[in-house]
C-alpha cells in the first residue's frame, strides 16, 4: 500500500501522523511511504529522519494526497483539504464528525473510507487512541497549575512541594479516570498533598491501593467538594460523563469560598468543563481570573507538547495503521472489532449510529 503523511495545516497544530519509527515499520513491511516535506518539524522530526527509514519526501500536500492509498494524520481535515481526498482513499485520523456537518458532508461527497481515532473502541468500552492524550493532559495539568500558582501570574504564591519547615501545597483532583490518575501521580511526585474524588468506588479502591499515602481518596458529592475547595491550592477538573456535557461540580457561588490565587485547571473543558465559570482558552492566552480564582482552560493541552503527544499518539495508532496497510480496510476491520468501531463514513455512507442520528440519517451496515 502507499501511505501518505501530510503536514497538519490546522492552526497551531504541530503534531504529525507518524514518527520515523512508524515509517520504519511500514517500509519493513514493503509499503511505500510519502511524507510531505517539513511535516514532522513541529514535533522534532526532520525530512532526513524519515528518508533514513525509507520514506520519500514530497514537496506539496496535493502530491501526498494524490499518490497515497491511505492518509494517516492527526486532526480532522479542514476545508482546504476536503478537495484533496480521493474516492476510495482510507483516511485515518481524528474526525469528531458529530461536531461538524460541513466535514461530514465533505467526507460523504469524497467517497473516502474515514476511520476515526476517537471511535476505535476496545471490548471493555475504553478508547485506546484517546487515552494517551488524556495521559498527556493529566500530567501537564500539574505542570501548568504549579506555574500559575506563582505570584507574578496572580497565583496564591505556593510551591507545591513545600520546603523543610513549610507544608506542601494541596491539590484537589475531581475525577479518578485517566486525567485524574496522571494528575494525582504528578502532584504526588512533586510532594503535594493530594485529594482525589470520584463517584466510582472501584476506581477509588484501586487508587487507594496503588497511590502513596499522601494521596487520599474521597467520594465526589457537593458536600465534600464544598469542604475541599476551601483548603486546596490547585484544583484539577478531570471528570467525564461519556457523550454528555461534564457536570458543573463547582458552581460560580463556590469561588468566593476559595482563597484568592487558587488555581483551577479544568481539563474537562472540551466537554464543557466541570466548573460553571469555565470557558475555553488557548495556549496563546491560557488563563483568566474570576473572583480572584485563576482559571486555566486550554481545550487542546497536548498541542503544547507536540513531541511527547506525537510519539504517544503514534505508539497506539501504529498497530492499526500496519493492519490496515497489510490487510486492506475490509479485512482489517473484519478481523479487529476495535478498529471496525472506528469506521465512520464509508464510500459516501455514514456507518456509525451516533453520527447518523446527529444528522438524522439512517446508518448503513458495511
Ligand atoms: N483539555 C484537553 O486538552 C484534554 C485532553 C485530553 C482529555 N481531555 C478531557 O478530560 C476529561 C477526562 O478524560 P479522561 O480520559 O480522564 O476520562 P475518564 O473516563 O478516564 O475519567 C473520567 C472520570 O470522571 C469520573 N466522574 C464522573 N462523574 C463524576 C463526578 N460527578 N465526580 C467526580 N468524578 C466523576 C468517572 O467516574 C471517571 O473515573 C474528558 O472530558 C476529556 O475529553 C481534555
Question: Can you give a write-up of this model?
Answer:
By secondary structure, this protein is α/β, with parallel strands linked by helices. Helix content is about 35%, strand content about 15%. Helix 6 crosses helix 7 and helix 10 crosses helix 11. It is elongated and about 65 Å long. The mean pLDDT is about 95. Pfam families: AlaDh_PNT_C, AlaDh_PNT_N. One of its GO terms (molecular function) is alanine dehydrogenase activity. It is an enzyme of class 1 (oxidoreductase).
List keywords for this structure.
366 residues; alpha/beta; 8-stranded mixed sheet; 34% helix; binds nicotinamide-adenine-dinucleotide; EC 1.4.1.1; Ala_DH
Mean pLDDT: 95
- What proportion of the residues form beta strands (DSSP E)? 15-25%
Main sheet summary: 8 strands, mixed
Structural class: alpha/beta
Helix content: 25-40%
Could you say which overall geometry the principal axes of the C-alpha atoms support? Answer: elongated
Order of helices and strands: EHEHEHEHEHEHEHEHEHEEEEHHHEEH
Structure annotation, total helices: 13
Low-confidence stretches: none
Strand order in the sheet with the most strands: 3-2-1-4-5-6-14-15
Report how far apart the termini are.
Answer: 22 Å
Ligands in the model, by name, code or SMILES, are: nicotinamide-adenine-dinucleotide
- How many strands appear in the DSSP assignment? 15
Radius of gyration: 22 Å
Amino acid at each position: 500500500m502507499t501511505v501518505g503523511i501530510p503536514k497538519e495545516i490546522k492552526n497551531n497544530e504541530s503534531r504529525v501522523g507518524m514518527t520515523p519509527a512508524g515509517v520504519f515499520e511500514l517500509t519493513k513491511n514493503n509499503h511505500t511511504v510519502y511524507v510531505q516535506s517539513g511535516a514532522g518539524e513541529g514535533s522534532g522530526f526532520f525530512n532526513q529522519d524519515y528518508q533514513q527509514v525509507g520514506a520519500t519526501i514530497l514537496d506539496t500536500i496535493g502530491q501526498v494526497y494524490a499518490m497515497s492509498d491511505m492518509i494517516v494524520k492527526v486532526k480532522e481535515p479542514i476545508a482546504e483539504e476536503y478537495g484533496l481526498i480521493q474516492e476510495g482513499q482510507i483516511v485515518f485520523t481524528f474526525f469528531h464528525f458529530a461536531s461538524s456537518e460541513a466535514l461530514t458532508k465533505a467526507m460523504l461527497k469524497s467517497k473516502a473510507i474515514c476511520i476515526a481515532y476517537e471511535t476505535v473502541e476496545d471490548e471493555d468500552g475504553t478508547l485506546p487512541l484517546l487515552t494517551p492524550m488524556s495521559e498527556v493532559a493529566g500530567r501537564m495539568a500539574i505542570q501548568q497549575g504549579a506555574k500559575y500558582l506563582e505570584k507574578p501570574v496572580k497565583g496564591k504564591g505556593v510551591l507545591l512541594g513545600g520546603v523543610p519547615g513549610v507544608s506542601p501545597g494541596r491539590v484537589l483532583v475531581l475525577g479518578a479516570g485517566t486525567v485524574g490518575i496522571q494528575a494525582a501521580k504528578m502532584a504526588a511526585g512533586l510532594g503535594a498533598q493530594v485529594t482525589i474524588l470520584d463517584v466510582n468506588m472501584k476506581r477509588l479502591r484501586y487508587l487507594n491501593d496503588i497511590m502513596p499515602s499522601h494521596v487520599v481518596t474521597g467520594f465526589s458529592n457537593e458536600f465534600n467538594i464544598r469542604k475541599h475547595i476551601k483548603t486546596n491550592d490547585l484544583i484539577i477538573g478531570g471528570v467525564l460523563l461519556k457523550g454528555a456535557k461534564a457536570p458543573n461540580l463547582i458552581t460560580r457561588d463556590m469561588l468566593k469560598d476559595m482563597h484568592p490565587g487558587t488555581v483551577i485547571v479544568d481539563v474537562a473543558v472540551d466537554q464543557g468543563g466541570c466548573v460553571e465559570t469555565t470557558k475555553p482558552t488557548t495556549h496563546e492566552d491560557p488563563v483568566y481570573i474570576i473572583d480572584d480564582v485563576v482559571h486555566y482552560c486550554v481545550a487542546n493541552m497536548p498541542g503544547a507538547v507536540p513531541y511527547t503527544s506525537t510519539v504517544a499518539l503514534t505508539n497506539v495508532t501504529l498497530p492499526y495503521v500496519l493492519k490496515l496497510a497489510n490487510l486492506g480496510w475490509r479485512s482489517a476491520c473484519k478481523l479487529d472489532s476495535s478498529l471496525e468501531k472506528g469506521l465512520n463514513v464509508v464510500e459516501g455512507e455514514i456507518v456509525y449510529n451516533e453520527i447518523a442520528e446527529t444528522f438524522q440519517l439512517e446508518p448503513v451496515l458495511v
